[in-house]
Amino acid sequence: MKRNPKTIYYIIIATAVAGFGGWTVFTQDWSAIFRADRINALVLISLFSAAVLLYTRWARQGKPLFLRKIPGLDAVEEAVGRATEMGRPVLFIPGIDELDQIETIAGVSILGRVARITAQYDTPLTVPVRYPLVLAASQEVVEQAYIEMGKRDAYDKDTVRYVAGEQFAFTATVNGYMMRERPATNIYMGAFFAESLLLAETGNAAGSIQIAGTARPEQLPFFIAACDYTLMGEELYAASAYLSHEPIMTGGLKGQDFIKILIAACIILGVLLVILGRGDTFISLFDAV
Amino acid sequence: MRTTAPVAIAFLSGIAMVLAFFFNEETTFVGRLSNELLNWLIIIGGFTLLLGVVSITRVNLAAVKRRKEGWGYKVLTLLAILAMSLPSVLSSSWSSLFGRSDGSIYDWLFINLQMPMMATMFATLAFYIASAAYRAFRARSSEATILLITATLVMLWRVPMGEAFLNLFPGDIPGLLNTYIMNGANLAVQRGIIIGAALGASAMSLRIILGIERTYMGKG
Amino acid sequence: MSFWDQMQQMDRRWIYLMVGIAVIIPFIVPAKFPVSVTPEVQTFFDAVEALPDSSAVMLVFDYYPSTMAETTPMAVVGARHLFRKDCRIITLSNIPLGGPSLAEAVTREVAAEYGKVYGVDYVNLGYKYGYVSVLKGMGLSIESIFPTDNSGTPLSELPIMDSVKNYEDIAFVFEVADNATADYWISIVNAGYSVPMGVGATAVMAPKFYAFVGAGQIVGLLGGMKGAAEYEILLGQPDAAFRGMDIQSLVHLLIIGLVVLGNVGYFMGRQHKRGLKL
């Protein structure tokens, strides 16, 4: 198998980091350097990384990896198709948090996938954002999607617009847009707070089909009550991989599932040991770092 | 280069932050580097605020110049930006109306306009929750029925009037709700969602650090 | 369309009107039902009560003005309890929009009740961007993150900060939040530096924090306005939260009534349709 030339950069950098770390470790007092009380976290991270990398490698080698159906994501293409038929736009909100939040990154990743579909069907897309960095990232993602679908001329710079920096000013603007333009499809993917029900209920009143996804447990009930499909918790992070259909992305999901099974097994084992009165040592392995 | 440089930066900074967790923050280079990176984040964050102001001013000015539909509201937006920002950045030593302390224009506008407007928007949630509950909470299945009954009991328990009603029945219903619903079923489910979401976030972070996930850059 | 179907399609404006009336009635006819205390609030109160007098405590205003009705009563009752114990209060906020102003307003008002002096008994550090950086940075040195207080006075000139350098000098964190910053306080400050903390959160967020209470990561939880009312009862000073319980009671009963009505309409509509088919 031909080695990727970029891999050499990673090897050089990793060697430099390891060398520097090693120099730090062997020239200074070990106990003052390393946080031995966090060994349990190191073991978990190592297992986690190994699982993700292993499954990704298997996926690259063509091994089939099963992913269960996520109805909300299967409905995305159908929902965009509905918007095309009705001649109305698709509204996509990549959350209302900053770009340094992983939920927003997940939302922007899904935006890229959705933008490809809207570019393919020539469906108008509107993406209101709350933060400038999210504006920059979203514009890049949407433009790239249109270019990849060969629809560069169809890309409108105003597709992604900075609306307001304040939560409820943003919500009021988007609600006003929903009631005036009546988008056929609303997709909410990312971090949402108190405005989740305001957005979803207004979208419902406007007659839009709504697909939502957030990792905030407190907002899930509102989306479930007011939206047609809801992605819960980690389904949001899996969405980008699920929509891409790329084996390399699903490999990461399988690695994550392996660790979940491991954690569940540890919980069951811990409960049994505590019931038998022998849980102290086992529990001490998981002491808070 | 346009792809490699951001991926390399993501890799290096991600690895540095992960490694720093296991090294002493004060005595090791990696520990101090992670704190330095966090300080840089604070500085960069300040500049992004400027980016937002520039963006919203540019978009609204363009709409006003072209007399787009609703351009009057764009003028109000621009006036609001100027009214809040200009007096607050001027020195309070010139006038007590400047700056952000008590009695300044910024303070007055914030307390008398912005705060009531924010509270009003949040208050509309009460109406929306009522209409969503009326429309969506149907006992269509056995699970939905269990959910409805539990929700009704918890809603009663969380208000004094409802709790007084529940106390009319034999047994400590509020205590049972707290123990078995809030600290039982709710706690277990919340833990499951939190752990699942945290693992999902960790996997996504790992994919970003290793350059497998690049969709946030518009690539792949 | 049958009567039952029409009932299910009721214009939402009627519902809004009912909610509006339910909010206004308690202003005219207050009921003042007794408020019982839940174990989570009791343990929170006991933890603060057990603090040595004159301890340095962080009272964190991590909420937007939009949720003031729920969260400000928590901050007020927290400040009252801490001042009553002669604790030194260090306030700060990770919310740029209004956090420092709210902290200023609340602490100034409560300090006047107890004769406390700014700079000696309490200080407002204000806001800094990047809450992860801020929380981690304060573990090393609070002054490195907040070199001055909210009004620009260097911390070195404030007597309260003479003996408070980082988390090791903080006895307790009283966090009042309406967003995810509370999660970061728990995962960074409590987990990383073992600082005891209690959280006051909006009612929507409160169910999530039961997991942290169960794990012992937070000592107690104030859930929404009810939690604040319970704390006010424990402190012996019923105030805004207690008065708000009447309104909350009536609106909750209204929503339960609407849910029941909606389900009656749903089932009767189904029966009606079955009858028509026969």
Features of the shown structure:
heterotrimer; B: 220 residues; mainly alpha; 2 domains; 7 helices; extended; C: 278 residues; alpha/beta; Rossmann fold; six-stranded parallel beta sheet; 11 helices
Characterise this structure:
The complex is a heterotrimer of chains A (289), B (220) and C (278). Chain A is α/β, with parallel strands linked by helices and 289 residues long. Chain A folds into three domains: 1-32; 35-64 and 248-289, no CATH class; 71-244, Rossmann fold (3-Layer(aba) Sandwich), CATH 3.40.50. Helices cover 62% and strands 9% of the residues of chain A. Chain A has twelve helices and six strands. In chain A, strands 3-2-1-4-5-6 form a six-stranded parallel beta sheet, sandwiched between helices. The model of chain A has no long low-confidence stretch (mean pLDDT 86). Chain B is an all-alpha fold and 220 residues long. Chain B has two domains: 1-89, no CATH class; 138-220, no CATH class. In chain B, 75% of the residues lie in helices and 0% in strands. Chain C is α/β, with parallel strands linked by helices and 278 residues long. Chain C folds into two domains: 3-30 and 245-277; 39-238, Rossmann fold (3-Layer(aba) Sandwich), CATH 3.40.50. Chain C has a six-stranded parallel beta sheet with strand order 3-2-1-4-5-6, sandwiched between helices. In chain C, helix 2 runs antiparallel to helix 11 (240-277). Chain C is elongated and about 80 Å long. Chains in contact: A-B, A-C, B-C. Chains A and B meet through helix 1, helix 3, helix 5, helix 6 and helix 7 of A and helix 1, helix 2, helix 4 and helix 7 of B.
